[in-house]
Write a structure and sequence with these properties.
- By secondary structure, the protein is of the alpha/beta class.
- It is about 40% helix and about 15% strand.
- The protein is built from nine helices and ten strands.
- The strands form two sheets. The protein has an eight-stranded parallel sheet. A two-stranded parallel sheet has the order 1-10.
């Protein structure tokens, strides 16, 4: 029987974009979540390369609600904070930003940080972009090793980057970097856009998949379960077949959820709760 643990289901608050951190945390707790993926973006946790909000204050707010941080995701696909810039000055500042993100991650009580390989431009040749991504993530691996953090690299959609958008590219980069501090994250929407399946991802990467953004889609959009076309039970069967016990991030990004994000959290959590099994004592 398809099954997941409640402690695997991880709230992610992008759809609370128009609400403050306290409202977001109340919504996650009220829905039934125990663990969250905190995004490093205003208005929830603002930071840049030389400044961040008070980590201790934010952590206390999270823990006072009976929640814990499963991983931290600094903003990495919009504005100036991206991993794959060609410009050396921009790259240097970006690396300072992601090193600060690793520090924030550990101070929040987590040991995993998620990111992607955005930052290329449309006029660059693909092999140039991809080779640069490998070099940059080899650099990131060194910082992560020093910080004691695992960096989970997710694929994104073609509208966000021109490389590291497919299974082969993610797997190839992880294999080329060859460092336990850089691993893969499966995003079901990016996967679906490429016509790939969870089974293909796990067959290729196995235990190198350390995190999932596990949401419904058509295949575009990041939707609450039951509002897209993905077969939830079949996807959970694949997780079970490969013994995946990592977190399942609920990345709801469609603007239909912006007015009432708490309702989306509750409906999404209820859809997943049908597959919960008791935790071992």
């Amino acid at each position: 029987m398809a099954h997941i643990k409640r402690s695997q289901v991880c709230a992610l608050g992008i759809h609370y974009l128009m609400y403050p951190l306290d409202y977001l945390l109340d919504g996650h707790a009220e829905a039934g979540y125990e663990v969250i993926e905190l995004i490093g973006q205003a208005p929830h946790f603002n930071m840049d390369f030389d400044w961040n909000q008070d980590v201790d204050e934010v952590r206390k707010k999270i823990e006072d609600r009976g929640l814990r941080i499963g991983l931290f995701t600094p903003e990495c696909s919009c504005f100036q904070w991206k991993n794959n810039y060609a410009d050396e000055a921009a790259h240097k500042k970006s690396m300072e930003y992601f090193k600060r993100g690793m520090d924030v991650c550990t101070r929040l009580g987590a040991n995993m940080m998620l990111t992607n390989a955005c930052g290329d431009t449309m006029d660059e040749a693909h092999d140039v972009i991809y080779d640069r991504a490998i070099r940059h993530f080899a650099e990131i691996a060194g910082y992560a090793q020093e910080a004691g953090v695992t960096v989970a690299l997710e694929a994104v959609r073609p509208q966000e980057a021109r490389t590291c958008i497919t299974l082969d590219e993610i797997a190839g980069l992880v294999e080329a970097v060859d460092n336990v501090h850089v691993r893969a994250a499966l995003d079901t929407v990016a996967m679906g856009v490429q016509g790939e399946t969870p089974r293909q991802w796990f067959e290729r990467l196995g235990d190198k998949i350390v995190h999932c953004h596990f949401v419904d889609g058509r295949p575009y959009a990041h939707l609450a379960w039951g509002e897209g076309l993905f077969p939830l039970e079949r996807y959970i069967d694949v997780l079970n077949d490969y013994g995946y016990e990592g977190l399942l991030g609920q990345e709801l990004t469609d603007d239909r959820y912006y007015d009432d994000p708490k309702a989306a959290d509750k409906a999404n959590f209820a859809a997943l709760s049908k597959y919960f099994v008791d935790e071992e004592a």
